[in-house]
Amino acid sequence: MDTRLDTPLHVLQIAIGLTATLAGLDKFFDILADWGAYMSPAIASLLPVSVGAFMGIAGIIEMVVGVTILVIAPRVGAYVASAWLLLIAANLVMGGHFDVAVRDVVMSIAAFVVARAVEVRNTAGVGVRSGARSAAA
Description:
This protein is mostly helical. The protein has helices at 6-26, 41-44, 51-72, 74-94, 98-122. The protein has one domain.
């Protein structure tokens, strides 16, 4: 992988990882938002637990995903974050929160880019590296 992409990839990885971690932590404090207010009534009616309890579970998952992106397994964590954010966006659309849903779709795309870029970086030892161009490119 072109080494000029290392810094932007690392910055995006940190941003996605910290966002997931902090949003997860905030599920217990509601400083950034009243997270339960974003739960679609249709989804809330299907939950086997209260919305508050569900937000606590979601917070734990988000913190684990964030730490995974930051230090444990960035590729796996970023793929999980990408899928998780799409599920959140679907819930938001069902609840009529279209503006926030669009932001979550964009964050999902960013997480997907992190996952794919990490894959490319990890396999860059084979083939073209450091900005060099191949004859086929």
